[in-house]
């Protein structure tokens, strides 16, 4: 199943499953802003007008107003207006590259 909270959240989703969308029109469209996101799977979309890259989205995380996903197995924080990201502590890669 899918979970959507917000007007038109996951509105075009017809076959995708295990997604979460929070916000106005969250995960309604592809990156182009007009084509319905119908088949995303196992993904999280948080924020107004958050969009997936396309219907190959799987295991995607997209957070922030008007943020646009980069495709399967990626995470995006913020839209193109965000200039800096701040994190406390270490950022680790799992598993680490050797």
UniProtKB/TrEMBL annotation:
InterPro entries: Serralysin-like_metalloprot_C. This is Trimeric autotransporter adhesin YadA-like head domain-containing protein.
């Amino acid at each position: 199943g899918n979970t959507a909270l917000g007007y038109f959240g996951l509105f075009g989703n017809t076959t995708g499953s295990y997604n979460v969308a929070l916000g106005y029109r969250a995960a309604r469209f592809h990156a182009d802003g007009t084509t319905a996101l119908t088949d995303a799977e196992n993904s999280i979309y948080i924020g107004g007008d958050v969009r997936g890259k396309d219907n190959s989205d799987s295991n995607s995380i997209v957070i922030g107003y008007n943020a646009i996903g980069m495709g399967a197995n990626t995470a995006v924080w913020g839209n193109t207006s965000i200039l800096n990201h701040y994190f406390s502590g270490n950022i680790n890669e799992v598993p680490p590259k050797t």
